[in-house]
Amino acid sequence: MPDERSPIPDDDIEAEARAMLRETIERSDWYPTLRREERELLIQRDVDRHWHLTIDEARRRLLQGIRQSRGG
Questions:
Q1: 57 neighbors 64 (Cβ within 8 angstroms)
Q2: 0.85 cut: is pTM over it?
Q3: 22-68: pLDDT as tens digits
Q4: Of 27, 9, 30, 20, whose CA–CA distance to 52 is shortest?
Q5: Residues with Cβ within 8 Å of residue 31, at least 6 apart in sequence
Q6: How far apart are CA 13 and CA 17, in angstroms?
């Protein structure tokens, strides 16, 4: 459900925030000594725990995308 700051549904913001955090973690090479399956589980755990920290940036990116698609 959109709030007064954003015409974007909360589910879309959450999905973007999760994707941004996952990309950051994967690029950072966290848990380099673990097997791929173990690393993936820990990354998913971290995304589940901390995605909310990227909400503001996710909202900004989505709003920017809307503005660009409207030509503004």
A1: no
A2: no
A3: 999 999 988 999 999 999 999 999 999 999 999 999 999 999 988 88
A4: 20
A5: 38, 39, 42, 43
A6: 6
